[in-house]
Amino acid sequence: MAGNKGRGRAAYTFNIEAVGFSRGEKLPDVVLKPPPVFPDTDYKPVPLKTGEGEDYMLALKQELRETMKRMPYFIEPPEEKQDIERYSKRCMKVYKEEWIPDWRRFPREMMPRKKCKKGPKSKKEKATGQGTALTSTADVLKKIEELEKRGDGEKSDEENEEREGSKEKGKDGDDEDDEEAAEQEYDEEEQEEENDYINSYFDNGDDFGVDSDDNMDEATY
Amino acid sequence: MKRKLYYIFLFFLALRLPRTMTQAEIKLCSLLLQEHFGEIVEKIGVHLIRTGSQPLRVIVHDTGTSPDQVKKALCVLIQHNLVIYQVHKRGVVEYEAQCSHMLRMLRYPRYIYTTKTLYSDTGELIVEELLLNGKMTMSAVVKKVADRLTETMEDGKTMDYAEVSNTFVRLADTHFVQRCPVVPATEDSDSGPPPPAPTLVINEKDMYVVPKLNLIGKGKRRRSSDEDAAGEPKAKRPKQSTDNKEPIPDDGIYWQANLDRFHQHFRDQAIVSAVANRMDQTSSEIVRTMLRMSEITTPSSAPFTQPLSSNEIFRSLPVGYNISKQVLDQYLTLLADDPLEFVGKSGDSGGGMYVINLHKALASLATATLESVVQERFGSRCARIFRLVLQKKHLEQKQVEDFAMIPAKEAKDMLYKMLSENFISLQEIPKTPDHAPSRTFYLYTVNVLSAARMLLHRCYKSIANLIERRQFETKENKRLLEKSQRVEAIIASMQATGAEAAQLQEIEEMITAPERQQLETLKRNVNKLDASEIQVDETIFLLESYIESTMKRP
User: Where is the composition biased (Basic and acidic residues) (chain B) (predicted)?
Assistant: First the structure.
């Protein structure tokens, strides 16, 4: 069915009338651009359903949206530091309850690992389902105060240095507790962030695919 | 070559690999994950949808996210049944996204509201807690719900655990909540290291068995000292230590909402209301009775219910309904003769054996949805042509004009419009082996299944657009919203400390009249967009149910 341009005018290979144009009529213009993004509609949409059920579901939906933001499952993105920490921000900050997964139901590699520490402290084994009893809430509050005092510009390198350099037993004890609790309690603390980064730095891609994931216990820092 | 590809396709079909998601579905999942769990979870979730099954290391590497973040995100996703894991050879654990479960998040308000209508506030909160947390133990749910209900009660009154437990048991008995698969008990003398991930199992029989718990207690109110007077998020308080002192009686036994059961309920509701619209109240009650009798006996994916005899139906009619046996038989005959074929007669014993044709009913509902969309988008004359082609299955151009009694030019225009939007398709029937166009029949036909898929795809896009627009509107007015929230907080705290009306007035005036107007408009728009989402989801449910019913083996 090659378009044989015969002598004279080109002829259609099919009956043009079947498509709806009479012979010799001017064909419509070829469309050279995509259709408009917001085309006009000839018919307006039907109004939404209203009623008790619909109203209730609407309120429920909006409430759920707000509730989910406050749940521990909502993981806040790491915020960029602002120059001045606004007082209002501190006041309106929501303190979320922690969520501890039931580790028995999750793959073992999901459990957070102990962080690399240059100190002589030995690693405690993390037993499954260990309690999260925070030994000293006062110390936690002290830590928070310290963090605030430190200001936002300096990254946690300072904190790292301080922690790793410091040989104060009490302080280390706090850090250890804090960190262990933080890990177990899935708190979003900056130190964790920074340490993670260093952690993955050690974990180069050579191991990918070579070992099985049973060897994840290489984290004997 | 083509044949080889065809065989490969069949092979994959046999393996039942999850199908690739369309762009619209991925976009919608991304928006939902972001709204419910934040950007990090969204990033990991969408990555898994696009790439399929992957191990942890690859996810970390490909997304450029820190391992700790990836682990947290995966834990959240697994907890909410949005990602599953599987142990492959050599102990590698791979994670796979469940895109269809993510889309279910749209329906949460409907699930919760439905439970409210069936089991009142207690049931509503139970299902809400289960949906918000993915899975929970019964004791945890009961405690949480009792606390929440106590908050709403008058001073001095509390909600008893026993009452909440009872409702929980009822929900389990009617299969609205079900047990999650459990970690199998292993003997201690297991050789070798523990597996990298547990393989969870569940026995069919155990799925709705409620553990024998003796939950005694009452709900507790939050102490007022813990709350800010403004009712804002709680004041700074030390991290909660879990109550490890008491052992959890049902440790390890988790429950989740059974979404399939809700879907069965929605489907039944849709069928009953369709019958009510088409016929009358009594017919719909009869159909509702028949569906209720089949609830537990017929699996939800069956093409029709178990046959029910007219006598059985008569005995099971709701107590208030006083129709005689003859009238019931007449109604049943009418229903069975109706061209929609919702009800079918399968035998004559017991006064007549009747079934509900579930698959046919879903097909009718999907078709009605298509007709309605054509009518609202293209007009009633187009809808007439559409219904005509549906009815006659295949029609030529000329026949359409004649049967529909619409002038040729307009009929052609309408047909091409519907054709271009894929509501109608063209079937070629060649008269000669060379398929010459002038010697070929071109028949218009409606392929309901493919039109339904097309419409479903459009629905996903619509909801994605609605969500994006709502987020845009909220973002545009962010400053004003924050200001209004602050003002409200100030007013609330001032009221609590006993301020005068004049002072409150002054604070309220911090928001000017045009700003109030703007807030009103915003609220109205957001409500409209939210309500639209809920309604589009109803259409999505119908279409998905229909498409799913065609995919099951008969």
Answer: 231-248
Q: Distance of CA A217 to CAs A118, A194, A203, Å?
A: 18, 21, 12
In chain B, the percentage of residues whose pLDDT exceeds 70 is 89
B260-356 belongs to CATH 1.10.10.10:
yes
Which residues in chain A are contacts of B412 at CB distance < 8 A? 19-20
Q: Minimal Cα–Cα distance from A168 to chain B, Å? A: 24
Contact criterion met (CB < 8 Å) for A110 and B75: yes
| pLDDT top residue among B349 and B464 | B464
Distance CA B219, CA B160 (A): 6
pLDDT for B297-313, tens place per residue?
Answer: 888 788 888 899 999 88
Q: Do B534 and A185 touch (CB under 8 A)?
A: no
Nearest residue of B to residue A58 by CA position?
B531
A48 to chain B: which residues are within 8 Å by CB? 528, 531-532, 535
List of E strands, B16-71: 54-55
Q: Which fold has domain B17-99?
A: Arc Repressor Mutant, subunit A (1.10.10)
The Cα angle at residue A183 between residues A178 and A188, in degrees rounded to 5: 90
What is this model's ipTM?
0.85
Give yes or no for A22 touching B (CB within 8 A): no
Q: What is the pTM of this model?
A: 0.77
Q: Band the pLDDT of A153: cuts 50, 70, 90.
A: very low
Q: What is the DSSP letter of B201?
A: B
State pLDDT tens for residues B39-75.
999 999 999 999 989 999 999 999 998 898 999 999 9
Kindly indicate the confidence band of residue A152, based on its pLDDT and cuts at 50, 70 and 90.
Answer: very low
Q: At the topology level of CATH, where does B106-185+196-221+250-257 sit?
A: Arc Repressor Mutant, subunit A (1.10.10)
Residues forming beta bridges with residue B425, ordered by sequence position = B445
Distance CA B496, CA B490 (A): 10
Q: Which fold, B382-446? A: Arc Repressor Mutant, subunit A (1.10.10)
The owner of tokens 């191991």 is A207
d(CA B335, CA B19): 38
Could you give the dihedral angle defined by the CA atoms of residues B54, B55, B57 and B58, in that order, rounded to the nearest 10 degrees?
Answer: -20
- Comparing CB atoms, the residue among B112, B183, B377 nearest residue A43 is B377
Q: What are B303-359's pLDDT values in tens digits? A: 888 899 999 888 888 887 788 889 999 999 999 999 888 999 988 888 889 999 999
Distance CA A161, CA A171 (A): 13
Answer yes or no: same fold for B17-99 and B260-356.
Answer: yes
B233 and A75 in contact by Cβ < 8 A? Answer: no
The neighbouring-strand residues paired with B96 are B84
Strand order in B353-356's β-sheet?
A: B308-309, B353-356, B343-347
Strands (E) in B335-490, as ranges, are 343-347, 353-356, 394-396, 425-430, 440-445
Tell me the C-alpha to C-alpha distance, in Å, between residue B273 and each of A50, B215, B269, B270, B287. 17, 40, 6, 5, 10
Query: Among all residues of chain A, which has the CA nearest to that of B60?
Result: A200
What are the pLDDT digits (tens) for A44-54?
888 898 899 99
Tell which of A16, A89, A110 to mutate to test the B interface (max B CBs under 10 Å): A110
B 194-213 residues with CB < 8 A to A? 194, 196-198, 200
Report pLDDT for B3: 65
Instruction: State mean pLDDT over B546-551.
Output: 92
Supply the pLDDT for residue A182: 40
Q: Where are the domains of chain B?
A: 17-99, 106-185+196-221+250-257, 260-356, 382-446, 456-485+511-550
Optimal mutation site among B41, B65, B66, interface A, most CBs of chain A within 10 A: B66
A70 touches B at CB < 8 Å: yes
